[in-house]
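Listing S7. Sequence submitted for prediction.
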Amino acid sequence: MKRIICICGILFASFGFPVVANAQESGGRDSQRDKKLSEATKSEWNDRHERIQHEIESLPNHEWAGSYYHGDGLGVNASLTMAPSNGFVFVWTGCMGVYDRNYGDVTFTDQGTIQLTFEFVNDEIGFQGVSPEFVPIAWGERHYLIEPDRVIGFCNSVNSGREPREGAHGFYFLRRGDESKPVDGMPSVDDFHKQYMPADAIKAQIIEVGETTSTTSKYGITTVTAKVKLNVGSKNKVLPGMEFELYAPDVARLGNRAKVLHVSDSSCDAEVRYICTEKRDVVEPKVGWKYTTGSPWAYGLDVD
């Protein structure tokens, strides 16, 4: 089980989920954490959750009120339930029980974002914490809550076909039950972020490989990171922050993505990152590897 959770955590980090290494907590934060997980706080959390649920039921078709989830079903299970008047409740659970719990007030800003004010300290460290701000994004009958600094990542997931997801598990908050609802057109992002979802997938090849490093965990999982140059640039509608996924050759494919760092007219600098387990030889990136902003499945990649 430890090995499964480890792999899952690395995948979430590789795919853009903000799992951060544990940091030293002060005595005050230890006390706050103990209070967050106390029976008294659990009781208040449950009472507030019930009030929020009643408010949600009284607001059919509200643009953002609801209960949202993201996670992998193992160590990462984050739930956020909110409504305008009664605020929000948040809980993070995993195989070891409840990792974090919080609640507070909700404000819908003039900029169209949702801001959370927390009752307890909110440290986004390790398996705890939640963003203090979200952008509500509708897509057909689905409703997402996306952190402002992860909207580009969400667009990348749309390009690759990871969204719209078919089940509850995923990397972004989706309103519970919406995973079975249809989408129509493209997500309702602003004009700036629409540029990150081109109508046609962009295909690219590595034309230069720079510094390459690899680190291996005690579980035998090796993460490879490399600086590369791709043969596409601004004339191909490439933008910083775009992600490309490997589709050929069929090697080193676990989470293999190239994230664009800098863009020139006909090329771009990117960082490639992927995972190798002990079942596969560690392979370094090579000139000629092919990537796409679209789904690698579309090119016949065997992903079993």
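Caption to Listing S7: primary sequence and predicted structure tokens for the chain studied. The chain has two domains: 2-194, 203-296. Residues 203-296 form a domain with the Elongation Factor Tu (Ef-tu); domain 3 fold (CATH 2.40.30).
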